[in-house]
Amino acid sequence: MKIGAKITGIAILPIVLTVAVALGVALYQADVLKTFFGREIEEQAKSESQKIAQDVYLMCRSAQESVQLTMNHNLSVAADVLKHSGPVSFGSERVAWTAVNQLDHKAETITLPKMMVGAKWLGQNRSPRVVSPVVDEVKRLVGGSVTIFQRMDDKGDMLRVCTNVGNADGSRAIGTYIPAVNPDGKPNPVISALLRGNSYQGRAYVVNAWYVTAYEPIWNTGRKKVVGALYVGVKEENLESLRKGIMDIVVGKSGYVYVLGGTGEQQGRYIISKDGKRDGENIWNSLDADGHPFIQTIIKKALALKKGPTDTIPVDFMRYAWENPGETSPRYKSVAITYFEPWDWVIGAGYYENDLADSQKRMAAALNRMATWIMTTAFIMVLLSVPAGYLVARGIRTRVDSILKSVTDILIVTDIHQRIILLSLSAEKIFGIPLKKVAHHPIDALIGTNKLPEEIKSVLAQQKSGMRFEFEIAPAGSEQRHIMQGRTSVIQARGGRTLGMITIIHDITSEKEIDRMKSEFISTAAHELSTPLASIIGYSELLLSDGTNSPDVQKDALSYINRKSWALSKIVDDLLDLSRIEAGRSIPVDKKPCDINEIIRQAVVYGQKISIRHTFDLELSDQPGTLVADSGKLEQVMENLLSNAVKYYPDGGPVRISSTRLVDAWQVCVEDRGLGIAPEHVERIFDKFYRVDASNTAIEGTGLGMCIVKSILEAHGGNIWVESTPGVGTKVFFTVPLGT
């Protein structure tokens, strides 16, 4: 062989070998990364379903507490109506009843003395068209269902003698009774509480459905014996806003949330199904594609959940195969399960695992494309030898750099000796050191910059996947410290041999800040709700007291209760609007022709009611203020802006409101001369839960107002912005299109 050929061969051989090795490593790494990111996608889906299940639990708890407060209030009203109707007594004449046990539906004939309220017998009225005393008056006042019970015997069975609870045929359910002992031999909790002389609040079975209820005992004249009971309640299925909220939740791409009964008569029965189409259907004995009774397993898992020492809501998971009608093969479904014990609800947030396939396919396609380019490049390198080697190397490096630049998190890849192999661009920026200076150097090269804590070295030394750690760091050139969270994953060969570690570090400073803001919001919202509630309770107790109150006192008290009730209603409306925003839905608007100047004038009336220390100067356009918009929502915007102007202008003074007609929109400006807002706060006042620090001024608010205002204006196609100078004042501008 000629020397030239040998030299050529010697020159080409190292390149070919190098290319072969590099190609093998690249393909292997692509496979490892494909597996790693595939797992990450699955874990993210699992985490999302868990959070959704916990959020639905919190929705149920909030609704339960709210409805129970209403029931307790309704019971107080019912007791007052009964008291003013006259004393409860029993006549000498006895009447016959066909008493039907509401649980096992067994009937028996009994006779009981007539139950009298005042001098009037309650009767035996079954017709809803004929008025029944007391119960219909209470329903007229507060709504819901009302019942007066008469004690049947020494056991304490309670017979409905006067009620507006309906049977399946629509008639009043008089003659049905609550047994003191349930069919399973256990004492009925409602009767047990009443016979002890206590009231009962909570969930109870009423005739033919589950209700949220409140009961209190009716005593004989000497209060020595319980002779009956007074009841108010509302059906669980009537909590329409909660049901709709749950049915509107989408898990992943096509998953959904459902609710099953946990125990007793409703065990395994759909309480809330997908789109409500299977509500009431009992699926206890349903089998999955493998023939397993998966519903029974789900409910058993839910009932076995135990709350820990913290307020964390426990969640379990289940995976099963399911084949829908019309499908040719089963698909695997994963579900996050939790249990809301007060209502005996088993909550499931499920999704089909193949819904993740699109993301996994896109990720795999990207990695496959990268591998294809590497193979093509290797072939070209072999063909073009040394000259092409340089070009190919540069091309490969460009592609690797593109990947590293596109990774927003900090990514560090190390070998088994903790030597640095790769750094993402974000890692180079935050550590202030380029990869070329630390490549193939121990991790100490980063630790030595005094930027990365020593603890990461100990984490990497353990060579385990899933290790998590947190630390604080000041990025290069910055004094502000960031909170970082790291997660490790082991890179393994096919035989299980460890090749290195991938460490992904994510900046969670904003998440921590959001958590803090949410905590502050919960505390603030609780205060904003409890303060008017306390006032309402206080004034209502004043009105209910036995003492005589003058008409002026009564009027002032009722006026105060009315104002505070509207304040509570506004907070609840804000929370409902927030729930729509959180769910990614725009706030609904009902656009009709209206007058922007009239809306401003109405809002000024509101402003004059909330503050006597401020004047409201109007500079309205002379042109007709007509536009097509939701006048109620725009009035909500104006009231919020005027409320803010009053709050952040504590010394009082003029608030200027102006309107200007633009080419295709109206522009409104609300200007005050109050505290003003610092530039760093102006950028964030439209964030959810964000409140300008008012610790020194005790300014109230939930931090939702400006977020909701912005959403309302965006729903109209408008815009809003703020101009403010600390100590000088604030101008808030917004525009609303004229509409058609």
Kindly describe this structure:
The protein is an alpha+beta fold and 740 residues long. It has five domains: 86-238, Beta-Lactamase (2-Layer Sandwich), CATH 3.30.450.40; 240-357, Beta-Lactamase; 408-507, PAS domain (Beta-Lactamase); 514-582, Helix Hairpins (Orthogonal Bundle); 592-737, Heat Shock Protein 90 (2-Layer Sandwich), CATH 3.30.565. Helix content is 41%, strand content 26%. The chain contains 16 helices and 27 strands. The strands form five sheets. It has a nine-stranded mixed sheet, with helices on both faces. The longest helix is centred in the N-terminal third of the chain and has 83 residues, at 3-85. The radius of gyration is 35 Å and the shape is globular. The chain starts with a helix and ends with a strand. 28% of the residues are buried.
Q: Which CATH class of the largest domain?
A: Alpha Beta
Radius of gyration equals 35 Å
Distance from N terminus to C terminus (CA atoms, Å) equals 88 Å
Number of strands: 27
Number of domains: 5
**SS element count, helices:** 16
Residue ranges: pLDDT <50 for 5 or more in a row? Answer: 1-7, 694-698
Mean pLDDT: 80
Tell me what the CATH architecture of the largest domain is. 2-Layer Sandwich
Largest sheet: 9 strands, mixed
Cα shape: globular
Query: What percent of the residues sit in helical stretches (DSSP H or I)?
Result: 40-55%
Instruction: Give the strand line-up of the largest sheet.
Output: 3-2-1-6-5-4-9-8-7
CATH superfamily membership of the largest domain: GAF domain
CATH topology of the largest domain: Beta-Lactamase
Structural category is alpha+beta
**Beta-strand percentage?**
25-35%
